[in-house]
Amino acid sequence: GMQRAEVMIKGPGLGRDAALRAIRRSGILLNLYVT
Asked: Which positions carry the signal peptide feature in this UniProt record (predicted)?
């Protein structure tokens, strides 16, 4: 599967933190951009 992901986040989001936790748990390396 995917080993690396680029995630772009714009503004506050209700599901954002939960999604980020799920992604981290899955072991994917993140390049995270918060705008």
From this structure: none
